[in-house]
Structures are given as C-alpha cells and as structure tokens.
Amino acid sequence: MKTNLIKTISKIALVLIPTLTLSMTASAHDPKLHAKKPEKADCSKMDHSKMDMKDPVAMAMMKKCMKQAEASSDKMDGKMDHSKMMDDKMDDKDMKKDMKKDEHDNH
Amino acid sequence: MKILKLLLLLVVLGIAAATTVIYSGIVNVAADEPHSDLVYWLLEETRETSIKKAAEDIEVPDLVDPELLLSGGVDYNFMCASCHLKPGQKESDMSVGLYPAPPNLTISAESHEGHEHGDDAQKARKNFWVIKHGIKASGMPAWGKTHDDKRIWAMVAFINRLPTLTPEQYQIITAIE
Ligand SMILES: [Cu+2]
Predict the structure, then answer these.
(1) Comparing C-alpha atoms, which of B166, B2, B143, B10 is closest to residue B72?
(2) Which of A83, B8, B98, B161 is most buried, with most CB under 10 Å away?
(3) Pure H helices in A27-87
(4) Are B173 and A42 within 8 A, CB to CB?
(5) Mind telling me which InterPro entries this protein's record contains (chain B) (predicted)?
(6) Domains of chain B: which residue ranges?
(7) Is the CB of residue B108 less than 8 Å from the CB of residue B87?
(8) What's the complex ipTM?
(9) Comparing C-alpha atoms, which of B165, B172, B152, B166 is closest to residue B72?
C-alpha cells in the first residue's frame, strides 16, 4: 500500500514537472531576450591600464581578443600571418649577428 | 496487544490522511504559489544536506587556468544565463517564473542569506555536483548526461569568477569567436 502510494506520487511528479517546466518556456515574451545570435567579443571596451595581467580573467580576455583579431586579419589578407612575424627566428638572427661581432672583437 | 492495535490504527489513519491529501486536490502545485514556510524549510534542509553529503568526496582540480574561463563562459552564456542571469541583468522569464527560483549566480553567494556555502573547495564541489546531477523537482537540469566532467569544471571555474565580472568583461569572455 505504502509503496503504491509512493509510486503514485512519483508518477504525478514525473508528469507534472516536465509539463510545468516546458509550459514556462512557452510563455516567453520579449523577443530581444531570446535572440541568441552568436556575438563577437567587443574588444574595444578593454582598458589595458586597468587590467592585472596575472589575473585569469584578464588573461582570458586577452586570449579571446587576440584570437579574434588574428581570425579577422586572416580574412583580410590570407597570406600574411602576423602572429608568425614576431617569430624567434628574427631574434635568432640578431643574436647570431651579435655573436659574430663578439667573435670578431676577440681577435 | 493494545499498543499494537493502537499502532495499527495510527498507520491506517496516516495512510488515509495521505490518500485524502493526494486525491482531494487540496495541494496547490502552481509554481506561482509559494510553499508554506514549513514545507519550504523541509525541502531546503533536505536538499542542502543531500548535496553536501553527495559531494563530500569529490576532488577539486586546479581551477585558475584562463582557458577554463573561456570554455566555461561560452557554455554558461549559452546554457545557463537564461535562468541564472548575466552581469547587469536583474531578472528573466525563467528567474521570475520558476519555483524554486534559480539563484542569481552573478551576485556573490555571501550576499544572499539563509544557508551556508562553506569555503572555496566546498563551494566548488557543491556546484560541480549540482551542475552534473541537477536537482529533482526544480528547473535545474542534470548537465552531466550531455557534458563531460572537464566542461563542467570549466563552468564551476567560471561561476567562481562570475560575481566579479562587469557586463563588458562578461561579453568578451563569453562571446563566440
Ligand atoms: Cu545559495
């Protein structure tokens, strides 16, 4: 008897809860709140002077905005990849020059 | 023998009372009609104790990686903000219409009273469990059926920082590239 009761209660709950939850979404009204179009990050609002670069939130924002800038510059000129232009290869050359100079000075 | 009879009578009476309550339609299940204080307290205590116990052995991973905020932020904005709001927003259809109401996760837990939230690890454990398993008979779904633990921890990391985010920071972190 008691287990039957519990079963009945759970059956009622099983029907009621999804119904209530679903009918709630159906009564949505302000279309602006429901428009879920993918939005680009608004990076112009970022104020670097106020950002603590050790804070994960600041680092996450920098990452997102750098990726986005990269993606949009890729679209503009497919062949130029700015991210690779600051490669350490350039630094390496400078360093080699320095080293040669050093060798030169040695004799 | 007499005591046994009395007990039996009480049991029968109890079942009769429960049956009457169920089939008389006296219980109002409308979400726009709050529980009585007693019922609310009973449900809340049961829920808090249950979550605390179920979550106590969960190991909390390192949650400071900014990558977690990005993954968790996008997921939160897409799946959770309709009920739990975003910075600068006071209410939504869901936050107003659901009962029990979804807590506003954009304000720090300390600023709402009524129950304890514990230290950071305890809070993270609890949030992870709730996101993964959901809460019965409330609008809170079990996201673990469709999302792996990694993505759920990312949402936990994001929720940790959510009360500190300005609307502009929120927009950047949750935007889809
Ligand atoms: Cu709370």
Answers:
(1) B143
(2) B161
(3) 31-34, 56-76, 82-85
(4) no
(5) Cyt_c-like_dom, Cyt_c-like_dom_sf
(6) 1-30, 37-174
(7) no
(8) 0.78
(9) B152
| SS3 call for B82 | helix
B64 CB within 8 Å of a chain A CB: yes
How many A from CA of B175 to the centre of ligand 1?
27
Region B162-166: mean pLDDT is: 95
CA–centroid distance, B123 to ligand 1, in Å, is 10
Q: Residues A52-86: pLDDT tens digits?
A: 888 999 999 999 999 888 888 776 554 555 455 55
CA distance B92 to A59: 30
Burial of B116-151, coded b for 16+ CB within 10 Å and e otherwise, reads eeeeeebbbbbbbbbbbbeeeebbbbebbeebeeeb
Tokens of B34: 């709050």
CA distance B67 to A60: 6
Who's near B93: CB < 8 A, 6+ residues apart? Answer: A24, A25, A27, A28, A29, A30, A33, B82
Architecture of the domain delimited by B37-174: Orthogonal Bundle (1.10)
Report the separation in Å between the CA atom of B67 and the middle of ligand 1, taken as the mean of its atom positions: 26
